[in-house]
Amino acid sequence: MARLAQTAGLTDVQSEILATVRQFVDKEVIPRAQELEHSDTYPADIVEGMKEMGLFGLTIPEEYGGLGESLLTYALVVEEIARGWMSVSGVINTHFIVAHMIKQHGTPEQKQHFLPRMATGEVRGSFSMSEPDLGSDVAAIKTRARKTDDGYVIDGSKMWLTNGGSSNLIALLVKTDEGAEKAHQNLTTFLIEKPEGFGDVAPGLTIPGKIDKMGYKGVDTTEAVFDGYKVGADTVLGEAPGKGFAYMMDGVEVGRVNVAARACGIAIRAFELAVEYAQQRKTFGKAIAEHQAIAFKLAEMATKVEAAHLMMVNAARLKDSGARNDVEAGMAKLIASEYCAEVTQDSFRIHGGYGYSKEYEIERLMREAPFLLIGEGTSEIQKTIISRGLLREYKSRS
Predict the structure, then answer these.
(1) pLDDT at residue 217 tops 90
(2) Is the pTM of this model over 0.85?
(3) Which residues form the catalytic set?
């Protein structure tokens, strides 16, 4: 058992799930990650293995065929998977967010229609909020849904859909102009069922080919173009339009815990690679781990791994308790992603010239870690969320 990133107070069931996932990662993911990543190949067999373990239904209630586990359990599972290959964790991340939104905000009919099939992985979710010109100003969304006699017609372009081609359900945030004074109260989330694949997948909906990325390969990242796409009124998430922003932010909040968990997983793997290499590589007659410069670097890396893990666990437990955790989730995402980048770069430096070779795993981690600095909100956005929350709590009485 590794010394780092241990979690106190887990149940026997949680411990058993994590042990099973770690064994799966060590046997099925790590040995294949390099080849699949370099060829940008979708990990179909690995995804089937996750389906068999029930991971797609990990947090879906038992009444809908899921395992009914907590956000903490899910976050720890994601940490283990990302330790093997971050792209595999990306396959279930958006699915989990969409399932969470339906579980928390969907109508009884929507829950019954989607959750049992999501639990088995038959229905796979993707999450669409970003647009080509949007940035972090979510209220400035341009994609619109125009009300008709029998539903809505959607027009516009969305960007950065993880699993956009491989999913068959999109949680889509668009503008519906509800007449509210505040811009974010004019947004609605739709549940869009579609065929898997690329191109003109349905009348009025095009999923262009995969976006070529620096890292985070294997999993597909796409655009989605809506041109006169017709949907029924029953595809609006929840009871009424105009609440989409709040629903999406709830999803993003748990997504930030997920990103923190992925960052922890990569940092753990980067440390494992560094500490192993440092004990094998010799200079001046001894292992480089015995040189103080490297030993101190390993100590700093391990401390960052531990700190990030503890903050991620705290944020997950707060969300599970029903308490507000926007500040804590922002803190966890901020520190975990920043520390992940730092630990990965330190591991890269310890590997020396070999770290620049595609034969070594650390080269892949160096391309994956930067994504976590921007995914689910940049570090600057996290600082904005954190500072606003702190000022709310520590409001001056002068």
Answers:
(1) yes
(2) yes
(3) 376
